[in-house]
Amino acid sequence: MASVILARSTSFVISKISLGTMPPFNILAVRFLLAFIILAAVFFKRLREIDKAALRSGIILGVILNAVLAFELYGMQTAESSMSSLIENSAFMLVPVFMIIFQRTFPSKKNVLGMALAFCGIIILNFGPGAEFNIGYIYYLAAMFFYAILIFVTSIVSKNADPLLIGIVQVGTMFIVSFAEALIYEDFRMPADGKEWGMVLALAIVCTAFGFTLQPVAQRGLSADRAGMFSVLSPLGAVLWGYIILAEPLTPLKLVGGSLILIGIALPSVKRKHLPPNNHF
């Protein structure tokens, strides 16, 4: 799960660069088409064993993932890619809410505290002293909401069918949906030069064929809230790459808000160390 999240953290910077010459749905369509071709070629024999459960689950996840990435890319058109990862991966805080509503499972006190800290961080990023309103942050909040749904639903469906086949169908569904959106809202085209092909191939291979396809496999042995805890790795990677490659500024306000989000995400995974009984010095 950690390797999946780290691989996907590179997508925030690569997508930001790609948006300089290609529209959002166009990027998604080409990215997921290439990823599906690669996966179908590698796992052709496995795909012949697909059943209705895997097909249905993959389609559901693909539609949800489309909402996540569409809002993410639209946000990146006006806001920093590092803020996308920070806000979007706060989805971990919403997963326990869905568990309460649909599974009657209540979060621990640390989960509640973490949610409160992350919420304060988001408020500071958007409305704190000196902060400027950016419509991109609203898109990121929408991506966060749908990403929480994706984590929750994945934790359920990945236990009822072959998770690898679910991941491949998810990628194929993403291509179909985003291609239709590109035809409706944009002028669809394939990458025009080496730079565009390089960016889209990186997104297709590293972030999609590996990152998104293997998430159902990684989550099969994890609870929804535990899987969400790993999202702390994505903001750390995205902020680092955004600062190094895109020279995105790290203002004191962003550091405070971002730190609260990171602490809120990480807090529930911190375990208290118990000393053995009768421990004398």
Helix-strand layout with pairing:
Blueprint: H1 2-9, H2 11-18, H3 24-42, H4 44-47, H5 52-76, H6 81-88, H7 95-103, H8 109-127, H9 135-157, H10 163-185, H11 194-212, H12 215-219, H13 224-229, H14 233-245, H15 252-266
What does this structure look like?
By secondary structure, this protein is mainly alpha-helical. It has one domain. It is 73% helix and 0% strand. The chain has 15 helices and no strands. Helix 5 packs across helix 10. The radius of gyration is 19 Å and the shape is globular. The protein starts with a helix and ends in a 15-residue tail after the last helix. The model has no long low-confidence stretch (mean pLDDT 78).
Feature tags:
281 residues; 15 helices; mainly alpha
Could you say which overall geometry the principal axes of the C-alpha atoms support? globular
Structural class: mainly alpha
- Helix count equals 15
Mean pLDDT: 78
Instruction: Describe the main β-sheet briefly.
Output: none
* Percentage of β-strand residues: under 5%
| Number of distinct beta strands | 0
Give the termini distance in whole angstroms: 40 Å
- Unreliable stretches (pLDDT < 50, length at least 5) are none
Quick rundown:
This protein has 281 residues and is mostly helical. The protein has helices spanning 2-9, 11-18, 24-42, 44-47, 52-76, 81-88, 95-103, 109-127, 135-157, 163-185, 194-212, 215-219, 224-229, 233-245, 252-266.
